[in-house]
Design a protein that fits this description.
Largest sheet: 2 strands, parallel
Number of helices: 7
Shape: elongated
Order of helices and strands: EHHHEHEEHEEEEEEHEHE
Helix content: 25-40%
Number of strands: 12
Structural class: alpha+beta
Strand order of the largest sheet: 1-11
Distance between the termini: 36 Å
Oligomer: single chain
Radius of gyration: 26 Å
Low-confidence stretches: 28-35, 41-49
Strand content: 15-25%
């Protein structure tokens, strides 16, 4: 029998929205919801505790109960096994190359985005905050793809209402702690401008910031890269292991927010690897 070829996103949607909700559908607990999508939507909107079935989706009362298709179960197993992959981001990970020319501000933005996507465990290894399987299931049920589109920021001076730079200084005070031991406390105050002499005081400094703030765009680009790696891993794992389906090659391109020549120069390196 000829197998049906589907792209990986359509296969995931079929598995998580049509087939896997069949399991335990006769057990109730879904309040008449129609699909796996309804579990996500209902929980977010109503803050209701919902009993998922053994595949982590809401049983669908509108679908005939029964065992899901074997290929849908194979998809679920492959998605669950994504959590065994290790994060493999390069040390110089930067999904917005323009930030490399913005010095410490660019590095801080990249670090903030990375800290939002990952955590460092007790062994010093950086791991994803959200499991890869959760990201893939969300994609399958909700279908929202992080686009990562956004203009690169520029450095701007922090100014007052008159458009003049704001000047700051570090102050140091001597104090004692709760045990009476002397301690030194350092804090920043905005008193670096000498109004009488119309110049900055000694040791004063202005501040700059990135406009627009790129952290949310960086986070979307990082999530896109992670999802793309997951989809490619699923394509590799599932082909040849399903009864009635095959998967076409993953259509997600490398860094779609970049110009074509920049994408060609970027490595095809995946950001996840076998543990």
């Amino acid at each position: 029998m000829t197998k049906k070829t589907m792209d990986i996103e359509a296969l995931l949607k079929w598995a998580y929205c049509e087939e896997l909700p069949r399991a335990d559908a006769n057990m109730g607990g879904g309040g008449g919801m129609a699909s796996g999508w309804s579990s996500v939507e209902s929980y977010a909107q109503l803050l209701t505790v919902i009993d998922d079935n053994r595949y982590g989706v809401l049983p669908a009362l509108s679908i005939d109960p029964g065992e899901p298709h074997a290929d849908a179960v194979a998809v679920h197993i492959a998605v669950s096994e994504l959590d065994e992959l290790d994060l493999d981001l390069p040390d110089d990970w930067s999904p917005m190359p323009e930030l490399n020319a913005l010095g410490a501000h660019g590095l801080m933005a990249i670090r903030s985005a990375l800290d939002g996507l990952t955590i460092v465990d007790g062994d010093g290894h950086r791991r994803l905050r959200r499991k890869p399987s959760d990201l893939v299931r969300r994609l399958a049920i909700i279908g929202v793809v992080p686009d990562g589109m956004g203009e690169p920021p520029v450095l701007k001076m922090l100014t007052n209402t008159a458009g003049q730079p704001r000047w700051f200084r570090r102050h140091v005070e001597q104090d004692v702690d709760c045990f009476g031991a002397p301690v030194e406390r350092s804090f920043e105050v905005e008193d670096g401008w000498d109004f009488s002499r119309k110049r900055a005081k000694g040791g004063a400094y202005p501040k700059q910031y990135l406009d627009p703030d790129p952290v949310s765009v960086l986070s979307e680009r990082g999530e896109y890269d992670i999802l793309r790696a997951c989809l490619m891993a699923l394509c590799d794992e599932l082909n040849g292991k399903m009864v009635d389906h095959t998967v076409s090659p993953c259509s997600w391109g490398v860094s779609p927010w970049e110009q074509e020549n920049a994408r060609a120069a970027r490595s095809e390196r995946r950001v996840l690897r076998a543990g």
